[in-house]
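Note to self: keep these together.
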Amino acid sequence: MIEIIKAMMERRSISKFKPEMPHKEQIEQIIEAGLYAANGRGKQATITVAVTNKALRDQLAKANCKIGGWDDGFDPFYSAPVILIVLADKSWPIRVYDGSLVMGNMLLAAHSLGLGSIWIHRAKSARMERGLSRLVASDQCQSTGRADTLSGQCGYVASAGGCETTYQGVTQ
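Structure:
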């Protein structure tokens, strides 16, 4: 069976992660896979932000928890040690589609590297959009693009990390 089709059939969303940080090379490979996603007119209007700093990751989790209305202590990122955030230029009319394709590639790449992943779509909230823009503009984050031009409409969030879950007979 062709490997990509096999990966598409086997990949599952994971909602319980081990605390160990994936290797930097693995994170880079996942992000690179997102760069090769199909996109409108070859514009490459998305950027991906990798949050690997635990304090910053926990800050994002706490903000997400508040926005989502969950109890304190709930981790909306399911304890994943890495959060990958895909953002796109607000002025690009097909930003959501381009961002979705980036996410799909990254989820498959994580699976192919033996890492679990989950797509968490929560950035459509105006509060979350402002928070993501501040993150991209901060000195804690290296990214391309200007924060004031980025849209949370395409601020999908994925998490990658080793997982502890077996789902439908597929160990990830």
